[in-house]
Amino acid sequence: MALIRSLPLEYGINFIGRRGLFLAFSAFLMLGSIGLFFTQGLNFGVDFRGGILMELRTEGPADLKALRERVSGLGLGEVTLQEFGEPTDVLINIERQEGAEDEQIKAIQLVREAFGEGVEIRRQEFVGPKVGGELKQAGMLATVLALLGIGLYIWFRFEWHFSLAALIALAHDVVATIGFYALTQIEFNLATLAAVLTIAGYSINDTVVIFDRVRETLRKYKKLPLGQVLNRSINLTLSRTVLTSVTTLLALGALFFFGGEVIRGFTAGLIWGVVIGTYSSVGLAVPVLTFMKLRRGGEEDDAEAKGTPAKAS
Question: End of a domain among 93, 127, 161?
Answer without folding.
Answer: 127
